[in-house]
Amino acid sequence: MKYDFNKYMDRRGTDCEKWDGLKDDFGRDDLLAMWVADMDFPAPPEVLAAIHKKVDEGALGYPMIPDSLRDAIRAWEREHYGWEFGREALSWAPGVVAGLSFAVMGLTKPGD
User: Rounded CA gap, 107 and 112, in Å?
Assistant: First the structure.
């Protein structure tokens, strides 16, 4: 899949916390919002199609994580970093900030 992630999408006025919440959060709205997971480009058509398919199914909830996803992540880590680990080493977080919090809790002890 080839996709142009340089295509800008102005999110102001779309009830976007990242942009529309600047005034409430910081007292001004002329700031540059630099968030990790709230992108300013349209989602790729393949992602939108998968979301539409799931919505049309009508059953929304917590899906099983397929072994193929675990294997793809393991292969990517092995190829890019030389890391080898089993499927059981992977766990899931509901977002980037939660994942960072989990890592801190797992790698530190009280008082660190």
Answer: 10
Yes or no: say if 3 and 39 are a contact pair by the CB < 8 Å rule. Answer: no
Quote the tokens at residue 105: 């809790």
pTM: 0.59
Q: What 3-state DSSP class applies to 108?
A: coil
pLDDT values of the chain reduced to their tens digit, one per residue, 112 residues: 688 888 899 999 999 888 999 999 999 989 998 877 788 888 889 999 999 999 999 998 888 889 999 999 999 999 999 999 999 899 888 888 899 999 999 999 999 9
Distance of CA 80 to the CA centre of its chain: 20
